[in-house]
Amino acid sequence: MKVTNHQGLAKRLVEKLRALGIRDQQVLDVLARTPRHEFMPESLAHQAYENTALPIGNGQTISQPYMVAKMTSLILEQTHGRVLEIGTGSGYQTAILAQLVSHVYSVERISQLQYHAQRRMKRLDLHNISMRHGDGWQGWVSKAPFDGIIVTAAASHVPDALLAQLSPDQGRLVIPVGAQQQELLVIERRGDEFLKRSEGAVRFVPLVQGDLA
Ligand code: SAH
């Protein structure tokens, strides 16, 4: 890798995230030790420890570190159990989660991205991850229910399938919803009831409806 001193750079990034309000020390520790530069094209690796989203090909982006830290904290507030991720992309969010929960199930609609993400998980020696090429609007029925579900692309509306696959016993969904104006929703299931709150405005690529790529 061309990035030298990535541990020092990652530490600095984590200090920035702490200053921006990320409080969960476990999350900060995992971000500090996960090599983000390995999740992107080498030509962009020099920007890997900046707090920005970056292009990863196929019109997609690796999420901003602050957003990864925030969404991970929102999941961990509720569970360290089985978590479904929709939108594997580079696999960065997947790798962060896998170091903090018992198992991550991750669905991605673009096979090329999924293939590279899978290889990264092996290289990083992360084995509590199951990946699937599929449509995230459908969730992952055969592995449900999930203690947590995290969606890393913005949905036009909350997918019913994801609500149905939440554990009735306080399963939690973290999902950006909207088109031009998006907000990050936290939805918690109590049996047949769903409690909803907003964590404010966000910006993600769209959760695509249609054929797999
Ligand atoms: N967490 C990823 C974010 C990638 S961007 C990272 O940090 O790298 C969002 C991802 O969601 C893209 O890879 C995109 O292909 C995927 N996506 C969009 N619509 C989808 C759908 N309907 N089903 C599954 N994945 C989808």
UniProtKB/TrEMBL annotation:
- InterPro entries registered for this protein in UniProt: PCMT, SAM-dependent_MTases_sf
Q: Where in the cell is it found?
A: Cytoplasm
- UniProt KW keywords: Cytoplasm, Methyltransferase, S-adenosyl-L-methionine, Transferase
A Gene Ontology biological process noted in the UniProt record is: protein repair
What is this enzyme's class at the first EC digit?
Answer: transferase
Q: What is one GO cellular-component annotation here?
A: cytoplasm
Q: Which GO terms describe its molecular function?
A: protein-L-isoaspartate (D-aspartate) O-methyltransferase activity
The protein's matches in Gene3D superfamilies, at most eight in alphabetical order, are given as: Vaccinia Virus protein VP39
Q: Which Pfam families match?
A: PCMT
The record ties this protein, via CDD domains, to: AdoMet_MTases (cd02440)
Kindly give the PROSITE patterns that the UniProt entry links to this protein.
Answer: PCMT
Catalytic residues at: 63
Q: What EC number(s) does this enzyme carry?
A: 2.1.1.77
Q: Which reaction does it catalyse?
A: [protein]-L-isoaspartate + S-adenosyl-L-methionine = [protein]-L-isoaspartate alpha-methyl ester + S-adenosyl-L-homocysteine
Question: Which HAMAP family does the record cross-reference, listed alphabetically?
Answer: PIMT
Instruction: Give the protein's biological function.
Output: Catalyzes the methyl esterification of L-isoaspartyl residues in peptides and proteins that result from spontaneous decomposition of normal L-aspartyl and L-asparaginyl residues. It plays a role in the repair and/or degradation of damaged proteins.
Family, similarity comment:
Belongs to the methyltransferase superfamily. L-isoaspartyl/D-aspartyl protein methyltransferase family.
State the protein's name.
Protein-L-isoaspartate O-methyltransferase
What organism does the UniProt record list as the source?
Aliidiomarina sanyensis
Which gene name does the record give? pcm
